[in-house]
């Protein structure tokens, strides 16, 4: 099974482009995900994980996600490679987002444009209310 659940902060606003072949929207962004434990006396480390979101999920991410915002992503890991113009081979491992959620608490300024919703799943368009961080589904 290939399933990934991440929660982290966006390092910058998502970048949006369209494929050349069928004009499909794809949004790309990087999540800074804190490691679970920190060594005593050291700052907590973070991993910077590239994420791509296609079609409706990508549209949602590009429209509502902003730099510094905490978000949750559910998806799968994908590896791919290609040769550049100089014949150099490139490899990338990334998360393909299948679902995307807001993860900031309302007191942190998340959802300023969303009066009654805290989180939205693109996959099933359900909206739910969250009263505290303990109510988050991830």
Q: What do these coordinates show?
A:
- The chain is mainly beta and 138 residues long.
- The protein has a domain at 4-35 and 44-103: Beta Barrel (OB fold (Dihydrolipoamide Acetyltransferase, E2P)), CATH 2.40.50.
- The protein is built from one helix and eight strands, in the order ββββαββββ.
- It has one helix at residues 55-64, and strands at residues 4-10, 15-18, 25-34, 46-54, 70-83, 89-102, 119-120, 127-128.
- The strands form two sheets. Strands 1-3-4-6-5 form a five-stranded mixed barrel. The protein has a two-stranded antiparallel sheet with strand order 7-8.
- A hairpin with a 6-residue loop joins strand 2 (15-18) and strand 3 (25-34).
- The longest helix has 10 residues, at 55-64.
- The chain starts with a strand and ends in a 10-residue tail after the last strand.
